[in-house]
Amino acid sequence: MNGRLGAVLGFGFISLVSSAAHAGGLTLPGSGAISTSRAGAAIVSADDGEALSLNPAGLANVKGTVVTVSAAIISYAMSFTRTGSYDPLDAADTAYEGTPYPTVENNAQAPLGFGSFQPVPVIAVATDLGGRLGKLRLAAGLYAPNAYPFRDMTNGYQFNGPNMNEPPPPSRYDIYTQEGAIIIPSIAAAYRVLPQLDVGARFSYGFAHVKSTVALWTGTQYDEDVGKDVLFSADAKGTFPTFGLGLTYRINKAISVAAAYNYALVIHAKGDATATNGPRVGIPDPIKIGPVSPGTPTRCAEGSTFDSQKVCVDFQIPMSATVGARYQFLDKNDQPRGDIELNIGWENWGKRCAGTGTAEYEDPSCTSPGVYRVVVDGEPYLDIDQDGTFESPVGRLQTSFLDHRLKDVWTARLGGSYILPAGENSVTLRGGVGYDSRAAEEGWLRADIDGMARVTTTIGAAYTTKRFQINVGLGAIFAGSATNEGNCNPTQANQGCAGTGDDQPLEDRNGPDPINPLSEPFNQAENPVTQGTFKGRYLLGMLGASFWF
């Protein structure tokens, strides 16, 4: 037993340090190897450590002690081809002016993964303490949402690099690079209220770490001159409480139904930000971001300097609810030989905060899954004398709202298994299909979040003995191709996209504009930068094990 437990904990440590998360991609089906190989159709059938995140009521089936170490291993291939061509520049002549925008591909390397593949772990221990708990079961562990937040949309471009004639990535105002990690340590309890009814609850306190880099406007630069861009990088961390509830009801030996609810992950992250000026920023007077002026109250945290500024990033992974039904195929001895399960889910990505698009939310503590609220405690300073001394602040940086214009998502998962005897042991075959509705409104697909509709297909297998089960699987998620229609390219003389020569109100715009932190959101110039075609797909691997003691 000690040898097995050491192997379990060793594999668990590897999965733990392979952190994974959200903050840049909508969540994917499942949690761990078993449920992911069923395309996520598992809220009724989950009965080991994966139930910690899927449906804590499933823990009521635990006998003795079960240790689960499991992971979905995810890679995301995505490309964006922006409509149109590079603008002629007012301040410079470049070889790429007038050429069509190139296709930009996500070339992210998972920081703690294998190339582009990132493990997303589930590690849990559930027990009845040798029967001393009666009908009560307890569990503890951690998990991460199945997602892929990593982005490298640079096409190899180096900001302020040696070759200013190299075309900059057309996705830079949406996202340049991005990483994210969310780990959710949890405890849970399940209780068999009636012979047919199990209930469960999970209580969690999670940790989030987000890093992103994006290009900003420093004025009304309709020609999108990379030399006038500011490359803004933020690195922020936060903690959050959350919880989940579930129940399972057995109608008879073959048919069971279940429901699960997961509260939102409300994240208020704090950290540091840096701004790197392009070579044509601040002409004729050099400009640099520095601390807020003495006597000016901070909105995020104290400690901003000319080298880095304090930043707060507020966002949310939304609440969700799932219902499911399962039918088990029984042999002549009423032992299960296989099952089929259908899950229908809802995810509240469309939740918005009152006041979005103004200078501030009506409730500053509000968070939204579709809008990242970014506050930087800094002010731009001018070097009027051009002597290297930045002494003249010109107004604090505005709150930025990175809008993704998301809507609620509906999901359908159909999965199942079939058990084949193998002497005293058994082999289980699994598979599933799933569908997620589109999250982004028309015109609002973006590279930093996958908002397309998706189809999931998975297969898997398990080898089960009296003491352990090994689980493996493969899968693919197809988003296909989707286009933000339009080819609007405003100029100083012909602004907006409605043909009137004026900017449209924020709520009427058909896509995001570059962020300009010197301008209040409702004064942001209309200049859509994500019109074009997105293509995406995920590849999945699953690997895990459960051990019974």
Low-pLDDT ranges: 1-24
The overall pLDDT, averaged over residues, is 91
Helix content: under 10%
Determine Rg (CA atoms, Å): 26 Å
Number of helices: 3
Report on this model:
- The chain is mainly beta and 549 residues long.
- The protein is built from 3 helices and 23 strands.
- The chain has a single domain (20-548), classed as Beta Barrel (Porin).
- The chain has a 14-stranded antiparallel β-barrel. A 3-stranded antiparallel β-sheet has the order 11-16-17, with no helix packed on it.
- A hairpin with a 4-residue loop joins strand 8 (230-250) and strand 9 (255-262).
- The relative contact order is 0.17.
Summarize this entry quickly.
The protein is mostly beta strands and 549 residues long. It has three helices and 23 strands.
Core attributes:
mainly beta, Porin, elongated, 3-stranded antiparallel sheet, 14-stranded antiparallel beta barrel, 5% helix, single chain, 549 residues
